[in-house]
From TrEMBL:
<dbReference type="Pfam" id="PF01182">
    <property type="entry name" value="Glucosamine_iso"/>
</dbReference>
<feature type="domain" description="Glucosamine/galactosamine-6-phosphate isomerase">
    <location>
        <begin position="12"/>
        <end position="239"/>
    </location>
</feature>
<dbReference type="GO" id="GO:0017057">
    <property type="term" value="F:6-phosphogluconolactonase activity"/>
</dbReference>
<comment type="pathway">
    <text>Carbohydrate degradation; pentose phosphate pathway; D-ribulose 5-phosphate from D-glucose 6-phosphate (oxidative stage): step 2/3.</text>
</comment>
<dbReference type="InterPro" id="IPR037171">
    <property type="entry name" value="NagB/RpiA_transferase-like"/>
</dbReference>
<dbReference type="GO" id="GO:0005975">
    <property type="term" value="P:carbohydrate metabolic process"/>
</dbReference>
<comment type="function">
    <text>Hydrolysis of 6-phosphogluconolactone to 6-phosphogluconate.</text>
</comment>
<keyword id="KW-0378">Hydrolase</keyword>
<dbReference type="GO" id="GO:0006098">
    <property type="term" value="P:pentose-phosphate shunt"/>
</dbReference>
<dbReference type="InterPro" id="IPR005900">
    <property type="entry name" value="6-phosphogluconolactonase_DevB"/>
</dbReference>
<comment type="similarity">
    <text>Belongs to the glucosamine/galactosamine-6-phosphate isomerase family. 6-phosphogluconolactonase subfamily.</text>
</comment>
<dbReference type="InterPro" id="IPR039104">
    <property type="entry name" value="6PGL"/>
</dbReference>
<dbReference type="InterPro" id="IPR006148">
    <property type="entry name" value="Glc/Gal-6P_isomerase"/>
</dbReference>
<protein>
    <recommendedName>
        <fullName>6-phosphogluconolactonase</fullName>
        <ecNumber>3.1.1.31</ecNumber>
    </recommendedName>
</protein>
């Protein structure tokens, strides 16, 4: 089968970061062949630090001023709170971009709406609508690249196993008040938005991710959120892992490094 996701596995985190940086640069070039912007969505958790390697941050081929960075999910906390995905990305990546004159356009949540996650999600959906054209003219936004993490329970974005949000097929952005991983109040891109992107990347590193990767790849019928993305987006998906996370996992299509 050719529509399986691809897995690229590396012996060390440094090599993984390097491979990821190369991939992101290719995605940037492909985006510029379609339009003058590079529109991406970024997750929190372990992903930002792996993404923010010198191979990306100091790479002269990165055209930061043409990047538009959105969040695949965000916690309903102030932007300077330790749980904020924006705050994390800012500290590990945005603050390290060398030429401040050439910064990406970043789209954080509206801090004034933190008390009401539905309003927070609706406002973030409006932010997407403004960038990707009106919702009545495009059915779904098409990100050039979505960068996802994979939680130890198989969640991605703030889409958790067995949660009713996995069935959301109208909203682009949805609130969640009962995230099993703290903090409980969040917003998230919905599954159709994630799988509609031109490219979808998962990053999962460390032996701690091995058991869940086995379930994701070997038992897709369990319907874990990461498996649902794999099944729906197929060969648009590339997994970047280290060897410790993927060793012994069957049912994967190994990609060339
Ligand atoms: O809560 C979250 O967790 C996931 C996975 O995080 P990781 O540390 O296991 O990589 C992350 O992708 C998501 O953005 C975040 O809000």
């Amino acid at each position: 089968m050719t529509n399986l996701p691809q897995v690229r596995s590396y012996p060390t985190n440094d090599k993984l970061s390097l491979g990821l940086a190369e991939y992101v640069l290719n995605a940037q070039a492909a985006a510029f062949s379609r339009h003058p912007k590079f529109r991406i969505a970024v997750s929190g958790g372990s992903l930002p630090s792996i993404l923010a390697s010198p191979a990306l941050i100091d790479n002269p081929s990165v055209q930061w001023s043409k990047w538009e960075i959105f969040f695949a999910d965000e916690r309903a906390v102030p932007l300077d709170h330790p749980d904020s995905n924006y705050g994390l990305l800012k500290s590990v990546l945005l603050d390290k971009i060398p030429q401040k004159s050439s910064m990406p356009k970043v789209f954080p949540i509206d801090e004034l709406l933190l008390d009401d996650t539905q309003e927070l999600a609706d406002a973030y959906e409006q932010t997407l609508i403004q960038s990707f054209a009106a919702k009545d003219s495009v059915k779904l936004p098409i990100f050039d690249l979505i960068l996802l993490g994979c939680g130890p329970d198989g969640h991605t974005c703030s889409l958790f196993p067995g949660h009713e949000l996995l069935r959301e097929d109208i909203a682009w952005v949805a609130p969640i008040e009962d995230s099993p991983k703290p903090p409980p109040r969040r917003i998230t891109l919905t599954l159709p938005v994630v799988t509609h992107a031109v490219r979808v990347v998962f990053v999962a590193a460390g032996a701690g991710k091995k058991e869940i990767l086995k379930t994701i790849f070997e038992k897709p019928e369990e319907g874990l959120p990461c498996s649902l993305v794999n099944m729906e987006a197929g060969d648009k998906v590339v997994w970047f892992t280290d060897d410790a996370a993927i060793q012994g996992v069957t049912g994967v299509r190994k990609g060339s490094l």
